[in-house]
């Protein structure tokens, strides 16, 4: 028991009829007996009524505040004592009761209540935690703070006096500490001078004269959702209108403050101890001050302001925090103040701005009480403080405060360890910033959207949600509480409407014509969000300029915050859906009130089976739809941002109840956005969480009320929706049928899927003869499948009846019927099975009910013995093959041949092992001597090109096939030449397979943009196409092209047509041809830019394929079948190139295109007058390689000479033709130009090119590169036009909460008269902005936060490829993960002082090098999920390859490895030394001289 609490409790004893002590439910609590014992000992003493108060102990978990209402209505003087061990558990749950009590204060019911709360000190900094107290600040209670035993006793008495004299209930809070000095006690005579008998009598008489039960009955009836009678509603409306002044800023509540100041003065006269509502210490002419609330103020005052003479600084301590008064705060602030630091005891502060800070900022905006210039105000919290260092810490605080660029958020003292953090919850008034900031990180997107859409109109009635033990729970309120709050708000505004109506109609009230018009217009448009604000502002302006004289008009003016139609929301969790009928959800739905509910469902799709199958949370939507006049939407922000936006706006516009069911799945608050994205896609794709909108208003307009927004949805779900009304009505009338209906539907689907799978397999077996051989494979990238198909052909050639399929495609229940089994399996990740064999392995590895005793088997595994180089990781080598072989033996199988292992490290890769193993297999099957077997020659990509008839193939026929979302494998190779990649969403593979569905096939379309320059009209077209046919995002690539993702097969042709309509195309954006040509897009750096850009366009056209297949297939110019008409490719021929061919043009001093990383590079050379002289020519660059295959490597281009501008196109043609004729067509991993040159030499290549040119290239000219980064912000070109380069992280243009990038650029494109330039680093330049248009563009950039360049040098120089979930080659995340990793690295660079330093950092999900990682100073190349190889030492100008530093690192390893290197770089670098050069000089890695040297460590 603390002395502070004893002092407060004894005062409560003296002035109360009834004392409630709320104790923790813990049996270990020692406070229970202490406090009861102390107060029991007081019973021999009398209180001021000459009696003994009743003591009652309540449990903190039993809704203790519900006991108060009846007793308060009887006129009892009540005190509540909350010891520190109970306060954390009870305060938040008390809020609904506190709201109601404060609403009744006007009627004196509750005006006698005082709550004394002891707060625990934080163990790290020995100050009380006021987090939960701050959550009570809008309840209408007065909040009074004290510190120390004597002050706590004094404030306890003052609190009771305030409650009686003002009619405002009081929360008195203090730190739970021991008093070192003796507490001076009060006698009853002294107490009676403050708690006067006349006040008590007046209070009791008022209560007894009223209907003592009606208000309480009204509260419980409305609180539990019981419809109110007309009389009850009128009474409740009056109560709510009366309460509004208690819930808002009490700047005009002069009576309260006058009475309170008189109490403080009277207390001083009685005790000779002086206190103030707000205390100021320090220099009265201070320019810098601290404003704080709580015991921290006493700590600062004692250890600093009372120790030394202080000049020019001050300390302002807030003792009475609510009601809040701008006037009383500001009259205590020195008029000389320029800088203010607000310190708050909220631990931890997870909100960006703390409550006190927001109050202080608001106060200084009040021009009625502060006429000077508003000071700089920063926000902070207390950390761990030591008494001997407080003066130092405060000095540092004021140094920061007085600096030119002070930190806006700070910690006084040492930052607290993470173990002391917990969720902060908060109520809101008009500003929902706290609410949004207080919500779990992953919920914030929805809450930010609410704020973005509705702005200042947004009102969230209940609390934020908190994650606890894996489930959401509402910690502040229930839905019925939020419903009650919103009903009160509606009544409050209804009263204003009635008041304005009376004033407008009452001719006896002197109302000016302008005011009467404004009032009338407001009444007409009160429910229109825009017009209600317009006319409300007019009323406010009129009454501000001409202050009202009539009381009714004054009351209207005081209610000006109600003019704008609010957007009112209750936020809830999926837990509400478990008991719809018994919860407040039912009452909202059935009320007919204009109230919106946002219910966030967090159940991850992958854990859905763990939930009770008879509880269907989505039924809340169906339940609501059956009421008819209720708007319902089901949304998922990580599936469709636009759909969420439409749903929120439609819900708010709908006149009546609206329910928005929002999906945001996660297992814990530590989950990454990637996890949430994957879970969302699974749920939406499978139909578990359908996206739909139900708008009854549309039905009234003769339109379909139900809109299904899901792009993909199972037919079974569609059938379910078609049957929805019947099933729902059935379940409603006979609840016991609910599980039967659900289970029957699920069983029907599963039976159908199993039947289809078995039927397909039986059909397959129907055409077989001879001895059977089943070949099953597990393959990610095609190698294992290729081996399996070869075995099938070999078996067929030997007369063996062989079938081949993926392991997961085979019905596992039939596996033991097979007599001869062959398994071919590659290795994924860290010894994992490939995706198309995981379900098979899961079953085989876990069951004991299966026997292979009648089966013979053979296993061949594919792996890389050096992929995981650490000795302890050797177990991962060929682990799937080894595990499968051992498991089959354990289950009784008989080996046909010993386990075969293919190793990528062998001379011929896995072929070495396979060639030794295969003959043994045929021998074991007894077919090795069946004569000479002539196996089909391996089909090459060149065969495919020749047979395609110049890229036609069977693409057109495949587009017409509606039975699948995919094209054939061969056609997918051809569509690459057309700029189209077939992909599938890898996040959904496993789940779709489990449901018997094909992969979620979709297509990526790449649009060529030579030099990266496109028109504003083309940007708008790309934006529209991505919204209509893609995944709502636009990708800016590392090669200055557009990419569309998520296009379905049925939309391919129309998408390509629309692209061509805007004069762009996709031909040769991919494939074995010349790709999109890159060029520096910023005309700032050179006057030759326009001339070079013209060269880019001409070169691109010259090297483009000439086949007419593109126009035939996609644009329907004509359709040629078979071989009737032959095209002619003058440059490429029928086999095109051996591999892709890439060209880039650099304009010194900027090498943003990484010119050396391309097959062919041009470096523009100009004279001193900016005249283009020609180009240095480089050849043989390229980034791709294969992990642990030293025969593959990245390479930088080498100079072979100089050509004049009019020779440049011819040079490009001849370089490409030499590659066409000499490139390796037998091995695609060895087919790039870099290998063609390295297999011979550079001189040979130059001579071959020159022999075709007919002239010699000149010697290369001098040039200088200074960087390879983008020039951000505004720059002026040589033509006096402005260009603005903006940061687009990883090139992904998409709207996200708080980041409306796509919308902003769309609005800019509508007015921009210049062009849109895609940079080689995935960013965007608004080009050719005239001087007169610059201001308009600047305003739009600012409006959509697109002018934000306040990023670290590391982030500004980062780049990634797309990788997962769509790239089939990705081994790890890249685009989705790099921003997270950079954020963690930024913590390190901030500590090192490297925030502004430019360091190139790049990430790819595989070693193929799309983001040009091997020229970066720091590069991460994906090796497996969450695992990367770390490369260091690339040249900052793109002039040097990096080198492998460490292999197979996870995130913690990466941070651990880089931190000391970055620290050392900050301290030991030479002037101007780049990071890549530094790590080489310090010996972390060796410099890479050329590609062949890349693997030499």
TrEMBL record:
Q: Which domain of life is it from?
A: Eukaryota
Asked whether the UniProt record includes Amino-acid biosynthesis among its keywords, one would answer: yes
Q: Where does it mainly reside?
A: cytoplasm
Q: Which cofactor does it need?
A: [4Fe-4S] cluster; siroheme
The cellular component terms of Gene Ontology attached to this UniProt record, alphabetical and capped at eight, are: cytoplasm; sulfite reductase complex (NADPH)
* MF (Gene Ontology): 4 iron, 4 sulfur cluster binding; FMN binding; heme binding; metal ion binding; NADP binding; sulfite reductase (ferredoxin) activity; sulfite reductase (NADPH) activity
> What Pfam families would the database entry show?
Flavodoxin_1, NIR_SIR, NIR_SIR_ferr, POR_N
- EC number, as in UniProt: 1.8.1.2
- Give the subcellular location: Cytoplasm
**Family classification:** Belongs to the nitrite and sulfite reductase 4Fe-4S domain family.
Q: What does this protein do?
A: Catalyzes the reduction of sulfite to sulfide, one of several activities required for the biosynthesis of L-cysteine from sulfate.
Q: Which HAMAP family match?
A: CysI
This protein is called what? Sulfite reductase [NADPH] subunit beta
Which organism's genome codes for this protein? Rhizophagus irregularis (strain DAOM 197198w)
């Amino acid at each position: 028991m603390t002395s502070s609490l004893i002092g407060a409790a004894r005062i409560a004893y003296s002035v109360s009829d009834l004392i409630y002590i709320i104790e923790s439910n813990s049996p270990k609590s020692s406070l229970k007996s202490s406090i009861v014992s102390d107060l029991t000992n007081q019973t021999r003493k009398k209180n001021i009524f000459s009696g003994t108060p009743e003591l009652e102990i309540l449990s903190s978990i039993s809704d203790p505040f519900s006991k108060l209402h009846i007793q308060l209505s009887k006129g009892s003087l009540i005190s509540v004592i909350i010891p520190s061990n109970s306060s954390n558990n009870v305060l938040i749950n008390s809020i609904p009761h506190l709201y109601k009590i404060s609403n009744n204060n006007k009627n004196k019911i509750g005006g006698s209540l005082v709550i004394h709360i002891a707060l625990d000190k934080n163990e790290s900094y020995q100050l009380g935690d006021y987090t939960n107290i701050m959550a009570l600040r809008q309840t209408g209670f007065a909040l009074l703070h004290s510190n120390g035993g004597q002050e706590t006793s004094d404030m306890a008495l003052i609190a009771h006096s305030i409650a009686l004299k003002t009619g405002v209930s009081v929360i008195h809070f203090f730190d739970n500490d021991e008093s070192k000095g003796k507490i001076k006690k009060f006698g009853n005579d002294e107490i009676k001078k403050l708690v006067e008998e006349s006040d008590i009598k007046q209070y009791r008489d008022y209560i007894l004269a009223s209907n003592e039960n009606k208000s309480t009955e009204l509260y419980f009836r409305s609180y539990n959702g019981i419809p109110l009678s007309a009389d009850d509603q009128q009474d409740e409306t009056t109560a709510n209108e009366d309460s509004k002044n208690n819930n808002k800023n009490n700047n005009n509540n002069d009576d309260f403050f006058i009475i309170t100041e008189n109490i403080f003065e009277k207390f001083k006269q009685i005790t000779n101890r002086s206190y103030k509502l707000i205390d100021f210490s320090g220099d009265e002419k201070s320019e810098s001050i601290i404003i704080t609330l709580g015991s921290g103020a006493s700590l600062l005052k004692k250890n600093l302001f009372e120790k030394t003479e202080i000049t020019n600084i001050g300390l302002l301590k807030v003792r009475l925090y609510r009601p809040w008064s701008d006037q009383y705060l500001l009259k205590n602030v020195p008029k000389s103040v320029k800088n203010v630091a607000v310190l708050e005891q909220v631990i931890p502060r997870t909100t960006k701005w703390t409550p006190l800070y927001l109050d202080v900022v608001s106060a200084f905006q009040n021009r009625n009480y502060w006429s000077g210039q508003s000071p700089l105000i920063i926000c902070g919290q207390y950390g761990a403080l030591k008494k001997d260092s407080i003066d130092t810490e405060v000095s540092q605080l004021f140094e920061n405060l007085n600096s030119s660029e002070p930190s806006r958020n700070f910690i006084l003292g040492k930052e607290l360890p993470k173990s002391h953090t917990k969720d902060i919850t908060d109520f809101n008034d008009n500003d929902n910033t706290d609410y949004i900031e207080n919500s779990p990180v992953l919920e914030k997107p929805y809450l930010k959207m609410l704020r973005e859409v509705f702005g200042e109109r947004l009102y969230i009635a209940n609390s934020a949600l908190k994650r606890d033990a894996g489930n959401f729970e509402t910690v502040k309120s229930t839905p019925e509480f939020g419903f009650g709050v919103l009903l009160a708000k509606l009544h409050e505004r209804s009263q204003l409407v009635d008041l304005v109506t009376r004033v407008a109609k009452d001719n006896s009230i002197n109302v000016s014509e302008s005011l009467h018009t404004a009032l009338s217009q407001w009444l007409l448009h009160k429910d229109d969000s825009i017009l209600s604000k317009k006319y409300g502002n007019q009323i406010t302006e009129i009454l501000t300029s001409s202050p009202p004289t009539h009381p009714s008009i004054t009351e209207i003016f005081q209610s000006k915050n109600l003019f704008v139609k609010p957007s009112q929301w209750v936020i809830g969790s999926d837990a509400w859906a478990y008991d719809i009928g018994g919860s407040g959800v039912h009452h909202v739905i059935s009320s007919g009130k204009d109230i919106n509910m946002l219910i966030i469902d967090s159940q991850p799709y992958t854990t859905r089976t763990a939930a009770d199958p008879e509880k269907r949370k989505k039924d809340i939507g169906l339940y609501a739809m059956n009421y008819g006049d209720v708007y319902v939407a089901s949304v998922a922000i990580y599936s469709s941002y636009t759909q969420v936006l439409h749903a929120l706006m439609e819900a708010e516009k709908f006149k009546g109840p609206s329910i928005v069911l929002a999906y945001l799945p996660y297992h814990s608050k530590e989950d990454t956005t990637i996890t949430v994205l994957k879970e969302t896609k699974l749920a939406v794709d499978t139909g578990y969480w359908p996206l739909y909108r139900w708008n009854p208003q549309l039905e009234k307009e003769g339109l379909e009320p139900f809109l299904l927004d899901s792009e993909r949805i199972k037919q079974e779900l569609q059938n379910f929706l078609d049957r929805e009304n019947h099933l729902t009505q059935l379940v409603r009338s006979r609840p016991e049928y609910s599980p039967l209906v659900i289970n029957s539907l699920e069983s029907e689907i599963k039976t159908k899927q199993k039947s289809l799978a078995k039927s397909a397999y039986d059909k397959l077996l129907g055409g077989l003869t001879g001895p059977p051989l089943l070949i099953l494979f597990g393959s990610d990238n095609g190698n294992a499948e290729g081996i399996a198909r070869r075995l099938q052909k070999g078996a067929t050639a030997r007369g063996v009846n062989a079938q081949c399929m993926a392991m997961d495609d085979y019905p596992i229940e039939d596996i033991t019927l097979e007599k001869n089994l062959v398994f071919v399996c590659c290795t994924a990740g860290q010894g994992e099975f490939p995706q198309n064999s995981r379900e098979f392995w899961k079953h085989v590895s876990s069951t004991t009910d299966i026997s292979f005793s009648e089966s013979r088997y053979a296993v061949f595994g594919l792996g890389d013995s050096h992929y995981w180089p650490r000795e302890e990781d050797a177990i991962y080598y060929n682990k799937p093959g080894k595990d499968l072989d051992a498991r089959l033996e354990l289950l009784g199988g008989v080996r046909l041949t010993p386990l075969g292992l293919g190793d990528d490290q062998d001379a011929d890769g896995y072929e070495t092992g396979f060639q030794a193993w295969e003959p043994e297999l045929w021998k074991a099957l007894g077919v090795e001597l069946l004569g000479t077997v002539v196996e089909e020659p391996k089909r090459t990509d060149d065969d495919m090109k020749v047979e395609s008839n110049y890229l036609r193939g069977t693409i057109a026929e495949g587009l017409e096939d509606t039975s699948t979302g995919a094209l054939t494998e061969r056609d997918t190779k051809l569509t690459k030449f057309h700029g189209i990649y077939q992909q599938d969403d890898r996040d959904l593979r496993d789940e779709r397979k489990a449901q018997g569905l094909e992969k979620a096939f979709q297509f990526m379309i790449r649009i060529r943009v030579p030099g990266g320059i496109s028109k504003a009209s083309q940007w708008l077209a790309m934006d529209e196409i991505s919204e209509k046919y893609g995944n709502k995002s636009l990708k800016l690539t590392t090669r200055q092209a557009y990419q569309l993702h998520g296009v379905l097969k049925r939309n391919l042709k129309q998408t390509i047509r629309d692209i061509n309509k805007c004069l762009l195309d996709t031909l040769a954006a991919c494939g074995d041809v010349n790709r999109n040509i890159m060029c520096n897009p910023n005309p700032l750096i050179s006057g030759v830019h326009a001339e070079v850009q013209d060269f880019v366009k001409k070169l691109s056209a010259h090297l483009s394929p000439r086949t007419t297949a593109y126009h035939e297939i996609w644009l329907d110019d004509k359709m040629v079948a078979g071989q009737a008409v032959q095209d002619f490719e003058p440059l490429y021929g029928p086999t095109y190139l051996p591999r892709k061919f890439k060209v880039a043009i650099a304009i010194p001093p900027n090498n943003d295109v990484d010119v050396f990383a391309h097959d062919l590079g041009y470096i523009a050379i100009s004279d001193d007058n900016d005249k283009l002289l020609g180009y240095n020519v480089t050849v043989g660059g390229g980034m791709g390689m294969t992990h642990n295959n030293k025969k593959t490597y990245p390479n930088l281009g080498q100079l072979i000479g100089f050509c004049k501008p009019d020779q440049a196109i011819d040079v490009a043609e001849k370089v490409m033709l030499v590659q066409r004729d000499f490139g390796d067509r037998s091995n695609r991993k060895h087919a790039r130009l870099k290998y063609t040159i390295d297999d011979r030499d550079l001189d040979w290549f130059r001579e071959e090119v020159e022999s075709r040119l007919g002239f010699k290239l000149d010697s290369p000219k001098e040039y200088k590169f200074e960087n390879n980064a983008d020039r951000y912000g505004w720059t002026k070109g040589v033509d006096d036009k402005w260009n603005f380069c903006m940061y687009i992280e990883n090139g992904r243009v998409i709207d996200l909460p708080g980041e409306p990038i796509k919308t902003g650029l769309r609005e800019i494109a509508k007015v921009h008269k210049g062009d849109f330039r895609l940079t080689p680093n995935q960013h965007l330049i608004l080009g050719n902005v005239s001087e007169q248009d610059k201001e308009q563009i600047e305003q739009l950039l600012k409006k959509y936060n697109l002018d934000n360049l306040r990023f670290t040098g590391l982030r500004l120089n980062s780049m990634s490829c797309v990788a997962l979930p769509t790239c089939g080659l990705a081994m790890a995340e890249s685009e989705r993960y790099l921003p997270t990793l950079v954020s963690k690295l930024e913590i390190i660079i901030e500590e090192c002082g490297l925030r502004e330093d430019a360091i190139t950092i790049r990430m790819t999900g595989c070693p193929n090098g799309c983001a040009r990682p091997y020229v970066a100073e720091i590069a991460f190349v994906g090796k497996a999920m969450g695992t990367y190889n770390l490369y260091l030492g690339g040249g900052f100008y793109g002039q040097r390859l990096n080198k492998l530093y460490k292999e197979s690192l996870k995130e913690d390893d990466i941070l651990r490895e880089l931190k000391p290197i970055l620290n050392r770089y900050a301290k030991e670098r030479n002037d101007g030394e780049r990071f890549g050069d530094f790590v080489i000089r310090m010996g972390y890695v060796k410099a890479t001289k050329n590609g062949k040297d890349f693997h030499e460590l």
